[in-house]
Amino acid sequence: MKSTRAIRIITSLSLGVVILASLSWVGLGQVSGQISRIDVFGKLTDRPEKTSRALNYLVVGSDSREGLSKEEIRALRVGSTAVAAGGRSDTMFLIHISKSRDAAFIVSLPRDTLVQVPAHKSQDGTTDISERPGKLNAAFAFGGAPLLIQTIETKTNLKIDHYVEVNFAGFTRVVDALGGIEVCSSVDIDDPKSHLVLSAGTHTLGGIEALKYVRTRDYDGRGDIGRMERQQKFVSSVLRKATSSGVLLNPIKLANFYNATISTVKMDSGVSKNDLLTLAKQMRNLSSGNVRTLTVPLSDPNGRDPVVGSVVIWDEELAADLWTRIRDDKALIDEVKPSPSATAAPIKIDKFKTKTAAENPCAPKK
Fold first, then answer.
1. What phi and psi values does residue 347 have, to the nearest 5 degrees?
2. What gap in Å lies between CA 236 and CA 355, rounded to an integer?
3. What's the CA dihedral at 189, 313, 95, 287 to 10 degrees?
4. What does pTM read for this prediction?
5. Are 243 and 18 in contact (CB under 8 A)?
6. Is the separation of the CB atoms in 270 and 162 below 8 Å?
7. Which of 115, 127, 205, 238 fits as disulfide partner to 122, beta carbons 3.0 to 4.6 Å?
């Protein structure tokens, strides 16, 4: 990812798990009316079929600088609003909420994933562009949310129910509203591209420094893959912080949290107030321990395509299995009995290498 591009990690679902579960019915109705709506599904055709009542949200980070002060732009060194003109996104998550609303999966989608970008109009609307190979983030750049959704649905055969977009300012505002987010590093970080300087150890980062943290990619030699793992840990830390009693029981923090979220989030126009009310009621018992994070299985994170160039290639077999399980709302972890004995404890097999949001990598080792 280019160093000047924004990496957005806060999602309406990772935040909304708390927002929706704790708002009053009247309050949620008021908040729903303040969230910006965009039409992303209206012109899509030949979409995958639903096989369960589970919900799939596509969460995308917009590199819009809208809402950032001049001081914040200078601190981040990301350039002005004009730099990001045209709309780009490098961070994408597929959030799956089970049909019983008691479990969720957060799947990272690498921005450089090799995909077939469907036929579409040029950005100025004057030219028909045929289907062609490309990178996942290019679909968003070429055709915004509709083309991105069409590309992902074609690649996964999974229907996207709702779309959420969060901008640069949204990230920093929400982190600050939560009182900062805890991160930890086993080594010193000095990344001249993200401008993050951090000593080894545990730190609580405010919005600006947190944004630098989730942008950094070059200090450990693992590029986007290492960054995605850090982003997943960061989302988990947000969930733990947001669902802590210190936030939920503090009226001032809670009010700041809501205001930061609703002022910087866009949702698809198909999400109604009643949808949010129903989801809020259903998700009251969803804990961070029932939220699993993972990256779509990869066969080659440093692949190469003769047309597109450097790309990330999914593991065809494992990725297909993952999307089938999510489509049918099945568990990601298998349990196998090691012997015919009725008393033998089952062995858990996690071939997708998931983690739970409750796991805290910064906690002292016992």
1. -95, 130
2. 9
3. -60
4. 0.81
5. yes
6. yes
7. 127
